[in-house]
Design a protein that fits this description.
The structure is a homodimer. The first copy, chain A, is built from ten helices and no strands. By secondary structure, the first copy, chain A, is an all-alpha fold. Chain B binds a DNA duplex through helix 1.
Chain lengths: 219, 219
DNA sequence: GTCTATATGACGATAGAC
DNA sequence: GTCTATCGTCATATAGAC
């Protein structure tokens, strides 16, 4: 009767250790760059020796995979409530600006996660199927939002949702890329690239919104 | 009287070696990833020992800097003639689509260069002042183009050229980023992200072009 | 000027003792 | 589960041969 309890405790302890390894790894990546992650440095900060980490991860890429997965889960939690909120939307533009801003803000405030998620900074690392699925969840959440906006007549019905989604992700990841590559030390609020978001969203809405959503507006 | 000749020959030989190191480095980066550049592998392919490379470069980051600089110079040669060509432009949209396409095509066809130039894949490497200047030249060439388009009444005069430029670079680097990160093996012509370029440029022209440039067109 | 031999310290990773 | 010991590789530095 006691065996399962002990197993549970060990399993929980193990999971806690794994989480701590990921925490510290993100710290190290933030200080030394995504590709600068050193298992030796992680072990040092945890008071361990490097080989001990291999009890929890098969390889360094396993740590990257855990960071990748956790990042997409975190951004899902961040975006999903906002994506669902559009049932109240009368005016498309401020809503889409809020969506874009929240996404980009998260990437600027979590640059290590974001670079690993959006770029390909680490030679030899490719996300596993599970990790990739976490990324797809976020994309599908956005697709569902556009589908609803389209069905409710807020967005042009003649444009395939896939096209909208592709263009939308180009806009958001373009802002994120230029801000993080050119001026990584600027915050979201003071960023000279993030400042273009209102104009980009306005452009998007002018082109893909229906007249109903832009009434009373002029160039 | 012969001394100068010998010096010239040596200097030329030295420059050729430097160029070869950069050539081989790009090859290695293309095979193993930008961050996967190994000076040992470069030396091996050149039939040298690793330390010999240090005769030509102070450090690995010097090689990255040479690649970075050469990339921006190459893209300048690629874009400058097209930027100047707009004196003949009657119709804004096809012209800007040609500009965007040529830029993005180059990045897709030179992914190692492009990742080093547009992302920050290498921890500890930051472009030197000279390298940075090569990048600024390209930006200034594009800015001059927008200034002329604006002066000729093809683009809204009430929008600052800096804003146009910022938005324009977000669009192009967004396409490049998503294509190279998500489907790096797709060519420019078959890419599912590069395929959005016409829609993105149309969006840009609808919003920032003057009525004169979009006459006879409908949504 | 050009290249090599050699050495240093850090890295990711593995094997095996406790 | 954690350790020590070890391997191969890496960027880099130095000293010296030609």
């Amino acid at each position: 009767m006691t065996a399962p309890v002990r197993i549970d405790r060990r399993a929980r302890r193990r999971l806690e250790t794994i989480e701590e390894i990921v925490d510290v790894s993100v710290e190290v990546m933030t200080e030394y760059g995504v590709g600068g992650l050193s298992l030796g440095e992680v072990a040092r900060r945890m008071g361990m020796r490097t080989p001990s980490l291999y009890v929890y991860f098969d390889a360094k890429n396993g740590v990257y995979d855990a960071v990748f997965t956790r990042g997409w889960r975190a951004i899902y939690e961040e975006m999903e409530p906002l994506h669902l909120q559009e049932t109240d939307v009368q005016d498309l533009e401020p809503f889409l600006l809020a969506v874009a801003s929240r996404f980009v803000r998260w990437t600027i405030e979590h640059p290590s996660y974001a670079q690993l998620m959006m770029w390909r900074p680490v030679p030899g690392y490719e996300p596993s199927a599970d990790a990739f699925a976490a990324a797809v969840d976020v994309l599908e959440s956005a697709r569902a939002m556009f589908t609803r906006l389209s069905a409710r007549g807020l967005i042009r019905a003649d444009v395939p949702v896939d096209d909208l989604l592709q263009i939308w992700t180009v806009l958001t990841s373009g802002v994120m890329t230029r801000q993080l590559a050119n001026a990584p030390h600027e915050s979201f609020d003071e960023g000279r690239v993030t400042a273009t978001l209102p104009a980009l969203v306005a452009m998007f809405v002018t082109h893909y919104g229906t007249p109903a959503t832009t009434k009373g507006k002029k160039k």
